[in-house]
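Task 17 of the worksheet. Students: predict the tertiary structure of the chain below and write it out as C-alpha cells. Keep your answer in the requested format; marks are given for formatting as well as content.
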Amino acid sequence: MRHFTAQELDAYLDGNVNGLKRWQITRHLKVCEACRKQREDCERDRAFLAEVRQGIETHEAYVKALPVTQVVAPSLSSRAPLLNRRYEH
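Model answer:
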C-alpha cells in the first residue's frame, strides 16, 4: 500500500489535488490509519498556525492603535543613558 506524503496531503487539504489523485487519496484515507493520522496532524498544524496568525494580527492592530508616544517613547527611554553620555576624544 502506497502512503501519501505530508506535501500531498497538504495539497489535498488545500483542494489543489483533482481527478484521479484526489479519488486515490480519499479512498486511501478510508483504509489507512497512518495516513489519516498524518492528515489530522496537518489539520491540527493548520489550526495552530491560524491561531498564531490571528494573534499576530490582533497584536499589530493593537500596536497601530496606540498613540506614537506609547510605542516610541519607551524604546527611546531605554536608550536615554546613551543619549546623555558625553564622549571624550
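Marker's comment: DSSP finds five helices and no strands in the chain. The helical segments are 6-14, 19-31, 33-65, 68-77, 80-84.
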